[in-house]
Specification:
Blueprint (H helix, E strand, L loop, with lengths): L7 H4 L9 E2 L2 E2 L1 E2 L10 H13 L10 H20 L7 E4 L2 H16 L17 E5 L8 H10 L2 E5 L9 H7 L4 E7 L11 H10 L3 E5 L11 H4 L3 E5 L10 E5 L1 H6 L10 E4 L4 E3 L13 H17 L1 H19 L5 E4 L10 E6 L4 H9 L3 E2 L1 E3 L4 H6 L5 E5 L6 H11 L2 H4 L5
Parallel strand pairs: 3-15, 5-6, 5-7, 7-8, 8-9
Antiparallel strand pairs: 1-2, 4-10, 9-10, 11-12, 13-14, 14-17, 16-17
Helix pairs in contact: 2-10, 3-10, 4-5, 11-14
Length: about 425
């Protein structure tokens, strides 16, 4: 079935920030891979909650508390359904970084003997192995480095080919009987390539390893069914999918969440407490200590509804067309090197590139002077940039509100970078 056509020009009217000029030029926003913009519907949903039902959830007997709890749990159901999960399988987090750290520290707690006897399945011993990949965001690398350091586990990596795709032959060797955890990204935030989740999950399941998926760059752009993908745990961030800052989701298979020890402890996640010990609620509340991001959760549910109304398949098809147009133009500009330009690879609307002879920061400032917002630096993926022999790149990332005019403005501006800095073609 051919997805419905997306009218990005009409959708742009829902995004107040896109109506402005920057440095005397109409804003061309191509940094949604870092932070997407929010439509009026999301801003209004959070405003309506804050002005009509703002109260602490799960603990008050008064009317506002009950209404706030309904909004909060209704939002959980909406967001969980968006990724194919049941509400009890979705833990509210501040974002993917916290979610991955939560999992890593919870596993560390199991290693320390905390939690129910069933938690021992997660415990690591010296010589056990944690596997990540060469293309990970630092948020899906450093927590595992720290867990390995605390437990004596060994951290191993699946390498990437020169075109940015993962070396799956190497993956089959790296993931071994000693592997206990396999953590990897669904879509690289530098390369835009969609990784073979099912194949990696199969390799992990063959040896009984836990799988942890970073879905930050896939949730806004692809139809996502986390249970169907077979992953044990997954994280995503609201601010990358038209939602507020400070909220995201940790998905977990029920049997995993039910036996994983808690990480943060305190109020709202307990059953009974004495001066000497405490009992913990079942998931998801077990992992939601303290006051939660209630208003942002309501905003994220509104963002999910907005994406669903636009049509996730239509969004992906629209962004794919723009990405193809962007690639076609970039490869024709002298001195531009695309990262992850793998022929035939499935991808989202994101391209990172190196400008020969011009530092990425200088290139970004040149583009900004023309009203074009892109990302520059190593994008929290320094090892991957080192793999490609560079320290930084320019990244242009698309969202449902971008148009052909945005892409053409970028291409026209990029063609002027090297001449402006006096670099010979």
């Amino acid at each position: 079935m051919t997805p419905a056509t997306l009218d990005a020009a009409a959708l742009r009217a829902d995004f107040p920030i896109l109506q402005q000029q920057v440095n005397g030029h109409p804003l061309v926003y191509l940094d949604s891979g870092a932070t997407s913009q929010r439509p009026r519907q999301v801003l209004q949903a959070e405003y309506d909650f804050l002005t009509g039902a703002n109260a602490a959830v799960h603990r008050g007997a008064h009317t506002l508390a009950a209404e706030a709890t309904d909004h909060f749990e209704d939002a959980r159901a909406v967001v969980a359904g968006f990724v194919g999960a049941r509400p009890e399988q979705l833990v509210w987090i501040s974002g993917a970084t916290l979610g991955i750290n939560l999992v890593a520290y919870a596993i560390g707690n199991a290693t320390a003997g905390r939690g129910a006897p069933a938690s021992a399945r997660f415990a690591l011993a010296p010589g056990d192995e944690i596997v990540t990949t060469e293309i990970e965001h630092h948020a899906n690398l450093i927590p595992w480095q720290e867990l390995a350091a605390r437990t004596g586990a060994v951290l191993r990596h699946i390498p990437a080919h020169d075109d940015g795709t993962l070396d799956m032959d190497a993956a089959a060797e790296v993931i071994s009987e000693r592997t206990r955890i396999v953590a990897f990204t669904h879509v690289s935030n530098v390369l835009g390539i969609i990784n073979p989740v099912e194949d990696l999950v199969a390799l992990a399941q063959r040896v009984g390893a836990l799988t942890v998926l970073d879905a930050c760059q896939s949730a806004p752009h692809l139809r996502l069914d986390l249970p169907a993908l077979g992953v044990d745990l997954a994280v995503f961030s609201g601010h990358k999918m038209l939602g507020p800052y400070g909220v995201g989701g940790l998905y977990g298979r029920s049997d995993v969440l039910e036996t994983l020890p808690p990480f943060l402890t305190g109020g709202s996640m307990i059953t009974t407490v004495t001066l000497d010990e405490a009992g913990y609620l079942p998931p998801p509340q077990r992992f939601e200590a303290g006051t939660q991001p209630i208003g942002p959760a309501v905003g994220l549910a509104a963002a999910v509804t907005y994406i669903q109304d636009a049509g996730i398949d239509a969004i992906h098809a629209h962004e794919a067309r723009l990405a193809a147009r962007m690639r076609e133009g970039l490869v024709q500009i002298p001195g531009i090197r695309l990262l992850g330009d793998a022929p035939g690879a499935e991808r989202v609307g994101l391209w990172s590139f190196d400008v020969d002879g011009v530092h990425a920061h200088d290139a970004g400032q040149f583009l900004d002077a023309q009203g074009i917002a892109v990302r520059v630096g190593h994008h929290c993926a320094a090892p991957l940039h080192r793999r490609f022999g560079i320290t930084a790149s320019v990244r242009a990332s698309l969202a449902l509100y971008n148009t052909e005019d945005d892409v053409d403005a970028l291409l026209d501006a990029v063609s002027g970078i090297r001449p402006y800095f006096g670099v010979n073609a």
